[in-house]
Write a structure and sequence with these properties.
five-stranded mixed sheet; 36 strands; 662 residues; mainly beta; 6% helix; 27-stranded antiparallel sheet
């Protein structure tokens, strides 16, 4: 009986367990169905119809279509494309939202973020990604263009105002066109200008059609090999002691492999404007600047070495300047070493250069030939930073005959050093600097050597977010030595104290500036001066109105004659949207009164300009078309001679912009 009882008990337990399992499985589908009903899927609420998610679409301005179930039942919708909010330019069509890009979209991956909020504040969010390719043959193939034109007609002017054009029409067309396929890309940028006016134009401008700028860039990259070329209005930047940011018409090429690079350029030494001069590449060394450089990096870019050689010739004439016509010729070679250590905490840069320069080659044909001068230059710079502290030191030397074709900003016959240090904290920052320079580096006995020293301390208080306070003290001394005569003696000591404060509260901004300077001349001339300046700049700016007046008082007193020159200046600028983005008024002007304490000079000048515009944001394919009345007025009055002059002119102006891309 016991075995039978044991068997019957086990059968009962198995049946009970089986029944329990069946009950659980019967309840689970109901629970799952209930969960689906209470937590609807976001993917079913928001769908990207076109283009399909995670696909590649061919097109420059692909249509984007988003379907949202029961769109009208949601309180708010936010759509972000590549991080930019496009909600306000979305078109609604039932439960579907559509966006047609205005400009060509860049090729590559794009992100689309859609967020909808129900009436009770519940958020539904869905992110999509898709790729674009601008054509079947190229990854990128586009042309972006903007044409803007302005027509100006003179309505009225005073009789004394001459050399003013009755009418003018100025139109500019800028373009950027690009082709890219794989590792190859080429880009053409340019600007054409059409100018037609009543009076002849001043050079270098040209009447009618002219080419103001163009640049054709090409790049190719294949593994560790790279190649690039620029033709047109290029910029040359080799080093501070050779050529730095020189803009000229010509061409340059660069090639590199791994950590090695080679660069070469040829540009016209004279500035070119319009179609004159062609590409600026062909020609002789007499009117071109030619150069080549080679560089390499080592130890994971911690060390960089570069050698440079530049040669060429140039005229001593430029736009807007007149000088006796001379021709110059020369060449320069240099070596640059840079190091970057401890994860950008310490940088060191040195450069050595040798130049040969002839500042007047015409004497070769006049029998008064002077040979070219040779000289050298050297500079070294070290900068370091640790946490909130910085320290920098530099040394420069330029020989008396060191000059470079294409770089007139080099200060030859100059030597000295400078030191800067500072610290920036949460509530304030402080910076100190000291420099010591002198000319006449070779101690020419016929010329005095002038040594300049400058000490500067600058402090800023930034603890209060809307309040910025700055204070500066500067000490400058200029002292001569080796004077061939007492008349060449220099002994100047200048102390300058300056401070500023700016406070911002909501739409208001208030600024205050002051400067006090004292010059102590310790030569026999004893020409001591005291200068003081005070300025206040309040401003208010809102969405539809802004005003920014300013007031300044300057005084300079000659301590020898005890004569003071006082100047009072008040200015204003006003902008108002009378009808938002439609009817706009702008005005600005200034009033200046300058007088001396000996009553020998008393002059007043008032100038004003105004503009009243009616803007049509979109007119057919045109953008920001405006019709405006513009005027200017100037009154000059000399109280001492009782002479009074005034000028005024009023124009009717039409301007518009036509953007188009394909």
């Amino acid at each position: 009986m016991k075995p039978l009882s044991f068997f019957i008990t086990r059968i009962k337990n198995i049946c009970t367990l089986t029944l329990l399992i069946l009950c659980v499985f019967s309840v689970c589908p109901v629970m799952a169905q209930s969960t689906e009903e209470t937590e609807p899927s976001t993917e079913k609420t928001i769908q990207l119809v076109e283009p399909e998610a995670d696909t590649t679409v061919i097109g420059k301005k692909p249509l984007i279509r988003i379907h949202i179930n029961e769109l009208d039942s949601y309180g708010n919708v936010i759509i972000m494309l590549d991080g930019a909010d496009i909600t306000n330019i979305i078109e609604k069509n039932g439960d579907e939202l559509q966006y047609s890009p205005i400009e060509v979209m860049p090729a590559g991956s794009h992100s689309l973020e859609v967020v909808v909020y129900s009436s009770d504040g519940e958020e539904h969010r869905q992110d999509f990604t898709f790729n674009t390719r601008q054509s079947k043959e190229f990854d990128e193939a586009y042309s972006k263009n903007i044409a803007d034109g302005t027509y100006r007609y003179l309505l009225d002017k005073c009789e004394d105002l001459e050399n003013i054009s009755r009418y003018s029409f100025d139109m500019n067309w800028s373009t950027e066109s690009k082709l890219k396929q794989g590792n190859f890309d080429t880009t053409l940028t340019g600007n054409l200008r059409y100018l037609n006016q009543y009076l002849p134009v001043e050079p270098p401008e040209e009447e009618y059609l002219s080419l103001t700028q163009f640049l054709w860039e090409t790049n190719y990259l294949y593994h560790d090999f790279r190649f690039g070329s620029d033709i047109g209005d290029v910029q040359i930047n080799e080093s501070p002691n050779t050529i730095e940011w020189l803009g000229r018409r010509g061409g340059k090429v660069n090639a590199g492999y791994a950590n090695y690079d080679v660069n070469a350029f040829a540009v016209k030494s004279k500035e070119l404007y319009g179609f004159n001069g062609g590409f600026g590449i062909g020609g002789s060394r007499d009117d071109h600047i030619l150069g080549v450089s080679a560089g390499a990096t080592f130890f994971s870019d911690m060390l960089e070495a570069k050698i440079i050689h530049i040669t060429g010739g140039e005229e001593d004439l430029s736009y807007g300047m007149w000088a006796e016509e001379t021709f110059k010729k020369g060449h320069v070679s240099g070596v640059v070493l840079k190091s970057n250590l401890f994860e950008n905490m310490f940088q060191l840069e040195t450069e050595y250069n040798a130049s040969t320069y002839d500042d007047n080659t015409i004497d070769e044909y006049t029998g008064e030939y002077l040979p070219a001068e040779k000289d050298n230059a050297f500079r070294a710079r070290a900068d370091g930073n640790y946490r909130e502290y910085t320290l920098g030191m530099g040394y420069e030397y330029f020989g008396p005959y060191y000059q470079v074709v294409g770089n007139p900003n080099i200060q030859r016959d100059w030597e000295g050093y400078n030191i800067q240090t500072g610290a920036g904290f949460e509530i304030s920052s402080i910076n100190l600097s000291f420099s010591h320079y002198n000319d006449n580096v070779e101690k020419d006995p016929l010329v005095a050597r002038i040594t300049s020293k400058e000490f500067l301390i600058d402090y800023s208080f930034t603890k209060i977010q809307d309040l910025l306070i700055n204070a500066t003290y500067q000490k400058i001394t200029e002292k001569s030595s080796m004077e061939p005569d007492i008349e060449y003696m220099v002994r100047n000591y200048i102390d300058t104290y300056s401070g500023s404060a700016g406070y911002t509260i909501k739409q208001w901004n208030l600024g205050f500036q002051t400067t006090h300077s004292f010059q102590d001349d310790r030569t026999f001339a004893d020409y001591d001066t005291v200068m003081r300046s005070y300025g206040i700049t309040p401003a208010f700016a809102s969405e539809y109105f802004s005003v920014s007046p300013s007031f300044c008082y300057d005084t300079i007193k000659d301590m020898t004659t005890h004569v003071s020159t006082d100047s009072y200046t008040a200015s204003f600028n006003i902008a108002a949207n009378i009808i938002p983005n439609r009817f706009i008024f702008e005005a600005g002007g200034s009033y200046n009164k300058t007088m001396t304490s000996d009553q020998l000079f008393d002059n007043r000048i008032f100038t004003a300009e105004y503009k009243l515009s009616y803007v049509i944001p979109k007119l057919l394919a045109l953008k920001d078309t405006s019709f405006s009345i513009q005027g200017k007025y100037e009154l000059t009055r000399d109280k001492k001679t009782e002479q009074r002059d005034h000028e005024h002119a009023v124009y009717f102006v039409i301007s518009s912009t036509l953007p188009f891309s394909f």
